[in-house]
Amino acid sequence: MNKPDRKTRISTQLMLLFAGLALAIVLVLAFVLNKLATERSEDELGHQFAEIALQTTDKLDRTLFERYREVRLLSIQAGLAGSGHDVDAKRRFLEEMQKTYPYYAWLGLTDTEGKVLVSANGLLEGANVAARPWFKNAFEGKHLTDVHEAALLSKLLQPAGADPMRFIDIAFPYHDAAGRLAGALGAHLSIDWARDIEQSVMLPLLTRRRLEALVVGQDMTVIIGPRELIGTRLAPTGVGAGKDFWQAAPSGHAVAAFGDGKTYLVGYSKSQGHSFSPGLNWTVLVRQEAGEAYAPIAQFRRQVIVIGLVIALLSAALAALLARRISRPLGVLAEAARRIEAGESRDIDEVPGGYREIGMLRIALQSLIGKLQANETAMRQAARRKDEFLATLAHELRNPLAPISVAAELLTMAPADAARQKNYGEMIGRQTRHMTDMIDDLLDVSRVTRGEVNLERRPCVLQEVLAEAVEQVAPLVATRKHRLAQAIVAEPVVVLGDRTRLVQVVANLLNNAAKYTPEGGRIDLALAVDPGRARLTVRDNGIGMSADLMEHAFELFTQETRKTDLSLGGLGVGLALSKQLVTLHDGSLSVSSGGQGMGSAFTVSLPLLHAGADLPAAGPAADQQASRAGGPVLIVDDNADAADTLGLLVGSFGYEVLVEYGPVAGLEQARARRPAVCLLDIGMPVMDGYELAARLRTLPGMQDALLLAVTGYSQDSDRQRARTAGFDEHLAKPVDVERLKSLLTGPEALAHD
Cβ distance 558 to 571 under 8 Å? Predict the structure, then answer.
């Protein structure tokens, strides 16, 4: 008796399961909530940051527009360049304008050569500024010049050692009273105006939320921001939003890295200008470190995990209580199973105080015990039938091998006359066909069992099926000296079926009747019509069947004691195969017998084809053969032995044969010789048979050639694919010689050598 494994108790497992499940649910919930909260927080904070950046950008654009408009209006004031205004008056005018907006660090007028004629406070009067970008831009229509340092003005306006001042330049050309170009009006606007605007918007937020604001130029150089970043070119990279995320829209938000090892939540807004002021294409960035932005979410996540641990502990305690109630009746069942294993009992008693499911388990176990006993008996019977089959198979294979071996020895001895050689050859052929039939039966049973048989169902006249089957068994019937009586209805009986398989079924039934009826017996073959069905009966007055044998007659390897002569052979698979083939035709096969020595009757019932159905006619291949004139037969197969033997076979029919061992060579041969028939393998390297067939059809003179697929692929899908590729027929390996000969010898199909 097996000893119980040292495994975890069910109570412990349930406790761990409940606790683990609760913890897993909480963790998943925490993960989902954290993800949702992070996404929502990112979206809400990002929108807030983007809105702040947008407000800052709008204020910068509007303020810059006011200065842009002031300088533009000043440049077109009548008489600014005229003689009616002396230099002092012009200087006072510029100084008054500077006082109205103190961020004007410098205002001045130049002539067309760049000489400063007059300026506020006289700064740079007499100096030449022709090389300054703002002077050139004024005449080229570029009235705004981005942030730059002005070393000369810094020396004049700041104490020694101070940082150079940075300015934005606004410049317009002005004209004299006659409308002639007189020079340029320039204004240097201190960058402090932009810093003050940025701080007016951001200062409350910077102190309360620890945000950081940056104003960057078009090349991402920091214009306004922390002192250590001024003049630094940033290279922000969006996390999941693309490298240049700020280029996607004028305003938005993203999670980004700036190369300092930190990740930020960033809102941004790009300068768009205002009214007729083009703006400077600045971008305002409002950012906060992701850790600080998501700090409330992290705290929420920790709280959820703590709550989850508490729930897991409570679940474990509850599971321990439930496990005790569940495990007690299971222990009773385990003890009952031990007694059954030890042979002390064969029944499982009622479990008191158990759940309904425990009672159902007890009933199921009791039923399982009975089924196991029945299965054990059935397995013993199956093993016995298998052993009998293997013994029979060895016997049946040795029977044909004996004459084949003797005939082969005789052929190697002294030369015999032609008659004896022919006799030996015929003997080898008969015994080889006998072995092939046995192997084919086994393969057929295997294919039918796996659902791999492809039936070619067409309208069939059963009278013709019976005639062909009778012709096949006639030699055996004559040898056994039986009388075969036929009662066949006169009117054609048409069913939808595979003619070859139906002939196989009827021939097998007749063959069994002939084998299991003592010599000189009687066999009756009858065909009748019932409402909607055809009824075919094979009856004999042979050895009959017991009731037990009839119960297993259609099972594999069933032979029992029916054999009267072991020399007749048989593997016990014929009836099983016939039953399955009839079932595939939507029919039924049954057996009846009066008992031992009372003969047997096998009845096949098949559904009739509806009235008015067309009778079988010549297949399309025959019509195609009739339309083809002479030419050689091309065989293409990368297996040299297969190609050569098939070539010898076709050559024995009297045809000129071309053999190639590859598709490329076969295509060239076809282009040169224009064969009337091509037998092509499918599984070839470089180019498979389907592609080769399609290419052959495109060659001049090959449109009407007979293309035959010769392959080991024999499923319905393979046949359909062959037809689609341009093949006329599909032949499964090994090739049926008679079918191949019939395809090649159609009316005027080929010209023989």
Answer: no
Has residue 312 been placed in a domain?
no
DSSP conformational letter for 614: P
676 and 568 belong to one structural domain: no
User: Rg of the chain over CA atoms, in angstroms?
Assistant: 51
Q: What is the DSSP letter of 128?
A: B
Across the beta sheet with 104-111, the strand order is 116-119, 104-111, 181-190, 166-175, 144-149
pLDDT value of position 620: 41
Once rounded to an integer, what is the mean pLDDT over residues 92-100? 88
How many CA atoms lie within 13 Å of 335's alpha carbon, on the beta-carbon side?
9
What whole-number distance in Å separates Cα of residue 499 and Cα of residue 519?
A: 30
What confidence tens digit (pLDDT) does each residue in 118-140 have? 999 999 999 999 999 999 999 99
Domain count, the chain: 4
Angstrom distance (rounded) from CA 86 to CA 374: 128
Do 626 and 505 fall into the same domain? no
Whether residue 735 contacts residue 743, with contact meaning beta carbons closer than 8 Å, is answered with no
Residue in 275, 272, 70, 64 with CA at minimum distance from that of residue 186: 70
Average pLDDT estimate for 508-515: 92
Residues 409 and 478 reside in one and the same domain: no
**Do 465 and 598 sit in the same domain of this protein?**
yes
Determine the Cα–Cα distance for residues 545 and 512; give it in Å rounded to an integer.
Answer: 12
Q: What is the pLDDT of residue 711?
A: 87
Instruction: Kindly report, residue by residue over 431-485, the tens digit of the pLDDT.
Output: 666 666 666 666 666 666 666 667 888 999 999 999 999 998 998 899 999 999 9
Residue 474 and residue 449 share a domain = no
Does the pLDDT of residue 301 top 80, yes or no? Answer: no
Structure tokens at 189: 């606007």
For residue 19, give the amino acid letter.
A
Name the residue range of residue 83's domain.
Answer: 65-191
- The CATH number assigned to the domain holding 734 equals 3.40.50.2300
**At 529, which helix (H) or strand (E)?**
strand 522-530
DSSP output for 558-596: --TT--S-GGG---S-HHHHHHHHHHHTT-EEEEEE-ST
Q: Which of 10-14, 406-410, 716-720, 745-749 has the highest mean pLDDT?
A: 716-720
Domain end position, chosen among 161, 191, 221: 191
Phi, psi of 239 (to 5 degrees): -90, 100
493 to 144, 463, 536, 581, 586: CA distances (angstroms): 102, 7, 11, 19, 16
CA distance 487 to 674: 53
Whether the Cβ atoms of residue 562 and residue 549 lie closer than 8 Å to each other:
yes
Task: Look at residue 434 and tell me if it is in a domain.
Answer: yes
pLDDT at 205 over 80: no
The pTM of the full predicted model, rounded to 2 decimals, is 0.41
Is residue 178 in some structural domain?
yes
Please count the other Cβ atoms lying within 10 Å of the Cβ belonging to residue 704.
12
Asked whether the bond before 734 is cis by omega within 30 degrees of 0, the reply is: yes
Q: Largest Cα–Cα distance in the chain?
A: 152
The reply to whether 78 and 173 lie within a common domain is: yes
Please indicate, yes or no, whether residues 602 and 475 belong to a single structural domain of this protein.
Answer: yes
- Picking from 168, 165, 213, 134, the residue whose alpha carbon sits closest to that of residue 63 is 168
Judge whether 602 and 516 are in contact, CB under 8 Å.
no
For 709, the 3-state DSSP assignment is strand
- Enumerate the β-bridge partners of residue 215: 224, 284
Is 177 within a domain?
Answer: yes
Residue 591 sits in the same domain as residue 680: no
CATH of the domain at 408: 1.10.287.130
- Which of 607, 631, 655 lies at the terminal end of a domain, its last residue? 607
High-pLDDT (> 90) share of the chain, %: 28
Return the residue matching tokens 């500024």.
129
Q: What is the CATH number of the domain that holds 161?
A: 3.30.450.20
